[in-house]
Specification:
Blueprint: E1 5-8, E2 12-15, H1 21-30, H2 39-47, H3 57-60, E3 69-72, E4 77-80, E5 83-86, H4 92-102, H5 111-115, H6 122-135, H7 140-146, E6 147-150, E7 154-157, E8 164-167
Parallel strand pairs: 3-8
Antiparallel strand pairs: 1-2, 3-4, 4-5, 6-7
Helix pairs in contact: 6-7
Length: 168
């Protein structure tokens, strides 16, 4: 993956890949460009490739994530796409029911399976799950990609069973 860093006055730094943000910011800070009052000095340094010698391309290559989805049952924590969220005790059982179906032959959970013993409708529970992920920084598209609606059948996790790791 390629990382693009754009330095523009007044000191706005944009990153195409957020997972590199901390590394790039350390490089900028290490080169004394973090607290410059003259933003044009930062732009000139970037244009003249002053940072080029300090950037180790190997350090910018992301570490591949072996499992795409990691679930820690003891803490109700879900890690996906390099980010983490701790689900509430009310909504985590709904996620667990989807997880259970994701690891079975038929990966689609019917509405009644999602509802479990709750008195709430499946669509409301899925909406709440998606909202929890959006509140944790995931986009609407990412939350919908994780919790997929299968028309006239129910819901499923958008991650293959081979990419799911469940701990404790």
């Amino acid at each position: 993956p390629q990382v693009t860093v754009k330095l523009r006055p007044p000191g706005v730094v944009q990153f195409r890949r957020t997972q590199h943000e901390a590394r790039v910011m350390k490089l900028i800070e290490r080169n004394g460009l973090m607290n410059d009052r003259d933003d044009f000095e930062v732009v000139d340094a970037a244009a003249s490739n002053v940072l080029g010698d300090a950037i180790d391309d190997a350090a910018l290559v992301p570490v591949p994530l072996a499992p795409v989805l990691r679930v820690r049952r003891a803490t109700a924590e879900v890690q996906w796409d390099g980010r983490s969220i701790i689900l509430s005790r009310q909504i985590f059982p709904v996620f667990e029911r989807l997880l259970e179906k994701a690891q079975s032959r038929d990966q689609v959970a019917s509405g009644s399976h999602v509802e479990g013993t709750t008195a709430r409708e499946a669509k409301d529970l899925i909406r709440e799950l998606r909202y929890a992920f959006k509140a944790a920084g995931f986009t609407d598209a990412e939350s919908k990609a994780l919790f997929v609606t299968v028309r006239n059948r129910g819901y499923r996790l958008g991650v293959p069973a081979t990419k799911i790791v469940v701990e404790g």
